[in-house]
Design brief:
The structure is a single chain. This protein is about 70% helix and about 0% strand. With about 290 residues, the chain is mainly α. Helix 4 runs antiparallel to helix 5 and helix 9 (about 140-155) runs parallel beside helix 11 (about 185-195). The two termini are about 35 Å apart.
């Protein structure tokens, strides 16, 4: 109800937050606030809230839930801040979360595995997948979410783009549901975009945005706007690209001043405002 209220611009959102204070599952409401903060590019506030959510879960004896919230932070590091220090930050973040007691099929493990994969830590990422496949080889979650997303992310990190698309194929059956969190659609779109398959990339990003309801504040939503805008530029549709960038920049209007994805998106949009020449044509970006 809180997130729906925010989506609708309804003033009752604060009432839901007040109601949740002190409730046994207050950590869920705090995590919901954290997700929205991160979606809007308010990194510092989002990080603070995710850590608070984890602390609240620990006080209830739910260490697995706490580890899952910290895994959210690792996942966000990988999606929003893929710089040279990413691998170390992801490892440190996951380590701070401790060991989950929810088993290798838990969603927290999924986020940790994909974060490690996007950071290039192939060994640790595949160890999580291998453990899950040994324990639950027939699990739909393992076969169509955890395994494909992790292997696809590894291939994407390594610029093995055709392999990434192939690895993500088993995810199609479940990728627009809540458990898949729309991630494999985003990874596939990025793989196509980096291949220069602009129409395929736009199709995947547009499909993700059309299915946003599965996880309305997933970080893949704003990142798909960015990927779509880049693909539209490369395909020569500058009018649509400008509109897509404008939508994204409005979404990130309250982002931290140093929020890297917004800075990058603003710079790319500003280049579109100038006459397009061979010198300032956008190029495919990782």
């Amino acid at each position: 109800l809180y997130q729906l209220s925010v989506l609708a611009g309804d003033a009752t959102a604060s009432q839901h937050v007040a109601w949740a204070t002190g409730q046994p599952r207050e950590y869920d409401m705090v995590a919901a606030q954290a997700q929205i903060a991160m979606y809007e590019g308010r990194w510092r506030r989002g990080e603070e809230l995710y850590r608070r959510s984890a602390d609240l879960a620990v006080t209830r004896g739910l260490r697995g839930t706490a580890a899952g919230q910290i895994a959210h932070l690792a996942w966000l590091e990988a999606l929003y801040r893929p710089d040279e220090g990413l691998a170390e930050r992801v490892r440190q973040t996951i380590a701070r979360g401790g060991t989950s007691d929810d088993g290798p099929v838990a969603s927290g493990r999924f986020r940790a595995a994909v974060a490690l994969a996007l950071a290039g830590d192939r060994t640790e990422a595949l160890a999580i997948v291998d453990a899950a496949e040994r324990r639950s080889p027939e699990s739909t979650y393992v076969r169509t979410v955890l395994g494909p997303a992790t292997r696809g992310a590894i291939a994407l990190h390594d610029d093995r783009l055709a392999e990434a698309v192939s690895a993500l194929e088993p995810a199609r059956a479940t990728e627009v549901g809540g458990l898949g969190a729309l991630l494999t659609l985003y990874l596939r779109g990025e793989a196509y975009r980096r291949q220069g398959a602009w129409a395929d990339a736009m199709r995947e990003f547009e499909r993700l945005l059309a299915k946003r309801g599965a996880d309305p504040y997933a970080p893949m939503v704003p990142m798909s706007y960015l990927g779509l805008a880049r693909a539209q530029v490369a395909a020569g549709d500058l009018e649509k690209s400008r509109a897509t960038y404008q939508t994204l920049l409005e979404l990130w209007r309250d982002a931290d001043a140093d929020f890297a994805p917004r800075i990058i998106a603003q710079a790319e949009y500003d280049r579109l405002a100038a006459p397009m020449t061979a010198a300032n044509q956008p190029t495919p970006t990782r």
